[in-house]
Each structure stands twice: as C-alpha cells, then as structure tokens.
C-alpha cells in the first residue's frame, strides 16, 4: 500500500534555501520511497536521477508573473537539461481579472517551447480564484494543450489544495486531462481524500510522512 500511494507522488524540493546536498538527498529519498518523480527548481539542473524516477521542474515559479517568453525559455532550457515534466505557474492576476485569453496564450507559449512528450502541468493557484475562474482557467489549459491542471504552488497565502477545488477541476476537464493536487498535503488521509476527489498526482515535500501515515509540520 505504501508503494502504491508513493506512485502518486511528485516528491518536491522547492525551498529557496535548498542546497545541492539537499537536492541529492531529495532524489535519493524519492527513489527509495518509490515516488513517481522528483520536482525541483530549474537552477538545480542538470542532475542525474534514477531511471525509476521522472524529473519534474517548475517554470515561472512561484509567482507566475514572468513574461511568457521567459517562461518559454525556462521551459526549453529545463527540457534540454533533462526535465521530463514541467509545472508552470499561470499569470494569476490575468485569471483574477477574467483575462482568460491571456492565460491561454501564456500556457501555449510554454507548450510550444516544450512540446510532447514533455508533460505540461499548469498550476492555477486554485485557492486564489473563484470557482468561475477555476473552470475558465482549466478550459484555457486544455485549449493550450496542457496535460495536467494543478491546484497550487504551496507558496500562496490563500492556501493550497482543497477537496472542493480538486472536484471542480476534475469535473471541468473530465478524463481529458489529469489533475494534480499540491499544497498542504501532510497526511495519508489528506492524500487519499485528494485522490478520491479526482487527483491523479500529488505534490508533496513530506512524502515519507504521507506514505507512512505520520503527521508532520512540513509543507509543500
């Protein structure tokens, strides 16, 4: 059961103070636990990961307020340095203002810079958006060719993943896209609730605590 839950997990290390030694430790722990991937900042690349792990890299993180050309360049560089998956942050202000065409164009710029088979996850910062905006942004991500919609960076003061947000995202994208829940998932119960709500991937920094059902004060 532990290994099964671990395969939902992107084992994440995104703290600004993370050292090269921390990165190597995170890769080793992800592999040991049987996680699906390790998720890292772009400046940590290139790194070597075991062939049992995918390498995910964040783009435009954590604010999303980067020019689309910069996000595209960051994405292309990450792929050239070995990234299998990209977790990009949308322009949350554009989403809040209802400028969904801008959101779609931003996502499309990254998709064009990193076409399939690179997996593109779109972080929508669901806790900062209305339900209407969540639906519209998920539709924009689908139109732009994304593979996943993802709840949160884990850095926004509005909060992280919620069951209701995951349910709404799943209802919007159906089976056409996958859904990643991230931000504040600290226990097995929380992880299983997100999966039951429709998440097919989880972003967690405390992967060991989650899969071993131990409470932790850590966060994504």
From TrEMBL:
Pathway(s) annotated for this protein in UniProt? Carbohydrate degradation; 2-deoxy-D-ribose 1-phosphate degradation; D-glyceraldehyde 3-phosphate and acetaldehyde from 2-deoxy-alpha-D-ribose 1-phosphate: step 2/2
* Keyword tags: Cytoplasm, Lyase, Schiff base
Question: Major place of localization?
Answer: cytoplasm
Active-site residue list: 87, 150, 180
Gene3D superfamilies with a match to the protein in the record: Aldolase class I
Top-level taxon of origin:
Bacteria
Per UniProt, the enzyme's principal EC class comes to lyase
GO MF terms, alphabetically ordered: deoxyribose-phosphate aldolase activity
Catalyzed reactions: 2-deoxy-D-ribose 5-phosphate = D-glyceraldehyde 3-phosphate + acetaldehyde
Claim: Lyase is one of the keywords in the record? yes
One GO term of the biological process aspect? carbohydrate catabolic process
Q: Where in the cell is it found?
A: Cytoplasm
Q: What is its EC number?
A: 4.1.2.4
Q: Which residues form a coiled coil?
A: none
Question: One GO term of the cellular component aspect?
Answer: cytoplasm
Q: Cite the SUPFAM superfamilies for this sequence.
A: Aldolase (SSF51569)
Q: What does this protein do?
A: Catalyzes a reversible aldol reaction between acetaldehyde and D-glyceraldehyde 3-phosphate to generate 2-deoxy-D-ribose 5-phosphate.
PANTHER family per the UniProt record, alphabetical: DEOXYRIBOSE-PHOSPHATE ALDOLASE
List the HAMAP family hit by this protein, alphabetically: DeoC_type1
Q: Which family does it belong to?
A: Belongs to the DeoC/FbaB aldolase family. DeoC type 1 subfamily.
Annotated protein name in UniProt: Deoxyribose-phosphate aldolase
* Species lineage: Bacteria, Bacillati, Actinomycetota, Actinomycetes, Micrococcales
Gene from which this protein is expressed:
deoC
């Amino acid at each position: 059961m532990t290994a099964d839950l671990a395969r939902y997990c992107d084992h994440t290390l995104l703290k600004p103070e993370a050292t090269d030694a921390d990165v190597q430790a995170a890769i080793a722990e992800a592999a040991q636990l049987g996680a699906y991937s390790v998720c890292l900042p772009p400046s940590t690349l290139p790194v070597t990961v075991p062939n049992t792990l995918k390498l995910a890299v964040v783009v435009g993180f954590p604010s999303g307020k980067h020019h689309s050309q910069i996000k595209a360049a960051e994405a292309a560089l990450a792929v050239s340095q070995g990234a299998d998956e990209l977790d990009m942050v949308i322009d949350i202000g554009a989403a809040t203002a209802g400028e969904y065409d801008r959101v779609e164009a931003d996502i499309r710029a990254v998709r064009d810079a990193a076409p399939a088979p690179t997996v593109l996850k779109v972080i929508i910062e669901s806790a900062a958006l209305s339900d209407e905006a969540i639906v519209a942004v998920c539709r924009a991500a689908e139109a732009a060719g994304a593979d996943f919609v993802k709840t949160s960076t884990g850095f926004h003061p509005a909060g992280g993943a919620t069951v209701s947000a995951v349910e709404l995202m799943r209802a919007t994208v159906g089976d056409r896209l996958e859904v990643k829940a991230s931000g504040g998932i600290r226990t097995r119960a929380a992880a299983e609730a997100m999966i039951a709500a429709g998440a097919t991937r989880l972003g967690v920094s405390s992967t060991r605590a989650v899969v071993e059902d131990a409470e932790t004060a850590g966060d994504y």
